[in-house]
C-alpha cells in the first residue's frame, strides 16, 4: 500500500510539473521573472571546454561566483583565466 501511494504521489507530481512547465513555455522569453543568481555560487561540471565553458561565461555575466569542475585541468585553467579577465570570481 505504501509503495502504491508513493508511486501515485510521484506520478501526480510529475504531471503537475509537466503542466506548469508547459504553461511557462507559452510565455515569451524574458516575460517571467528569472531566478537571480547574483552573488550565488554555481558549480559547472565540464567547465574546461564546450558547453560547460560557455555556461561558465554566461553565469559569470549574471554575477555568480563560479566553481569550475573538469578532469581537463589545462582547459579548466583557460576558462578560469578568461573569467578573471572579465572580472568574474572563479575557483
Ligand atoms: N555540443 C552540443 O551541441 C551538445 C548537444 C547536446 C548534448 N551535448 C552533451 O553535452 C555535454 C557537453 O558537450 P560539449 O560539446 O561541451 O563537450 P566537450 O567535450 O567540449 O566538453 C565536455 C567537458 O567535460 C569534461 N569532462 C568529461 N568527463 C568529466 C568528469 N568525469 N568530470 C568532470 N569533467 C569531465 C571534459 O574534460 C570536457 O572539458 C556532452 O555530454 C554532450 O554529449 C552536447
UniProtKB/TrEMBL annotation:
Cellular component (GO) terms are: lipid droplet
Cite the InterPro entries for this sequence: NAD(P)-bd_dom_sf (IPR036291), SDR_fam (IPR002347)
Q: Please give one Gene Ontology molecular function term for this protein.
A: oxidoreductase activity, acting on the CH-OH group of donors, NAD or NADP as acceptor
Which protein is depicted?
Answer: Uncharacterized protein
Where does this protein come from, organism-wise?
Answer: Caenorhabditis remanei (Caenorhabditis vulgaris)
